[in-house]
Write a structure and sequence with these properties.
It is a single chain. This protein is mostly helical. The protein folds into two domains: about 150 residues, no CATH class; about 120 residues, no CATH class. Helix content is about 70%, strand content about 0%. It contains twelve helices and no strands. Helix 3 runs antiparallel to helix 4 and helix 10 runs antiparallel to helix 11. It is elongated. About 5% of the residues have low confidence.
Length: about 280
């Protein structure tokens, strides 16, 4: 049986960081969540070897609906991309990241559960072999792993299951949020949290959620544009211009990082409104 080190799996660690960000946001630890997001951006930059490896893992593990006749070829081509990754730089970056995590978070960080753990572990082994150009698996094991990956990416997108349970889960979570945060968050931020919860428990059509999410992005963009044209906000002009630029240049899809980012944008809009009023 092949060996796998979960601490050195760039996809698993990224997902654990993402889960940590979500927990911190839920518990209203915004500053801590922001620190984690900065670490993610730093270590998972496309310029870093970890970032390059992670994107290959992600491309394979999050792809669905590929024609079965093409699936194997897609996997092979993605894995080939790993040969351009520097093993020395990659190992150095992973060691540094592990040391950072050990120093700044509890030992339970690496036990945070993630979806598709076994598949991510198997794929990491194949990628390690490609980067290192040596094999730790048997031919049979490699064929089995590739077969599982092929089945995964050629499968249709997951359908919603047990809508009744999903709706109940959503109602419970939403009720908890309303009780705990109704006095701490604004209406638009509350709406964002509802979108995020619905996205997590799949209690609503993803297309509708995406539309609602896009509406919030557009609302922020329009509000920042209006403040840019307001002479009373001249002292904040550079700040507003930079915020507006970042919003428009970022790929805004529903994920925990962007939910948190938009919540911060609504805080900024509130601050600008108060400055204008005063």
């Amino acid at each position: 049986m092949f060996k796998h080190n979960k601490k050195r799996n760039s996809f698993i660690v990224y997902e654990q960081f993402s889960a940590l960000v979500t927990r911190l946001i839920i518990n209203n630890h915004k500053d801590e969540a922001n620190k984690v997001i900065k670490i993610i951006k730093e270590y998972y930059s496309p310029k870093r070897e970890i970032g390059k490896e992670y994107r290959i893992l992600k491309n394979i593990l999050t792809t669905t609906g590929i024609d079965p006749s093409l699936a194997t070829g897609v996997i092979e081509e993605e894995i080939k991309g790993c040969s351009a990754i520097s093993i020395k730089k990659l190992e150095k970056e992973k060691t540094a990241l592990i040391e950072y995590i050990n120093k700044n978070y509890s030992k339970n960080f690496f036990n945070i559960p993630i979806k598709d753990y076994k598949l991510a572990a198997s794929l990491q082994v194949l990628i390690n072999e490609t980067i290192e150009n040596k094999y730790s698996t048997t031919p049979v094991e490699r064929v089995k792993i590739k077969k599982l990956l092929t089945e995964r990416i050629s499968a249709p997108a997951e359908k919603e299951t047990n809508q009744e349970i999903d709706n109940l889960t959503f109602a419970i979570l939403l009720n908890k949020f309303n009780k705990k945060y109704s006095q701490l968050i604004k209406e638009d931020q509350g709406d964002l949290l509802k979108i995020w919860i619905q996205y997590l428990v799949k209690s609503k059509d993803p297309k509708v959620l995406n539309e609602e999410f896009d509406q919030k992005v557009q609302k922020i963009s329009l509000k920042l544009s209006s403040y840019l044209g307001d002479s009373q906000n001249i002292k904040n002009k550079e700040l507003i211009k930079e915020a507006h630029k970042n919003l428009n240049e970022t790929e805004m899809v529903i994920n925990e990082e962007n939910i948190y980012k938009l919540m911060r944008y609504f805080d900024l809009i509130e601050d600008l409104f108060n400055d204008q009023k005063n």
